[in-house]
Amino acid sequence: MLKPYKKTYGNFIRFYNTSLKTYGDVDLLKNFFIGNKIYNIDYNKYTSSKLCTAALSCAIVIYKNYTYSTVKLPSNKLVKLNNVICVSYYFADKLNSFIYKNAGHFVNLGNRPKVRGSAMNAYDHPHGGGEGKAPIGKKTIYSFVGRKCKGIKTVK
Description:
Layout (H helix, E strand, L loop, with lengths): L25 E3 L8 E3 L19 E6 L3 E5 L5 E5 L3 E4 L13 H6 L32 E2 L5 E2 L7
Antiparallel strand pairs: 1-6, 2-3, 2-6, 3-4, 4-5, 7-8
């Protein structure tokens, strides 16, 4: 189970407490209201959690009946689940508000650029700019550091 929102070491996680729900408490699906966000969903009460176990993924209760509930998963798939299964109460943390600084930030994480340098503007890349399918536009090819490369001896 993931660490619930605002729960620290020494806090209690309540099981099957219908009167007072806090984030991370485990309860039966029939005790949740329509529109509540839930995570750690089981298919039946004897197995471990199978649905919405990743960080920042949650499901929403759409419809309730006496025996079954319909839940909308993060993939927008509707699933009909038994009301006796155990789920946890969810609150979204602000982990997804991280913004990348620049293209170099992506490269440091191991993501290669999706666009060729010759297709960019001259401001964005040394190979960019020009009319149509233009060559690089310099007498020789330069590396990102500014040194000449490809065909030029770099070691004396």
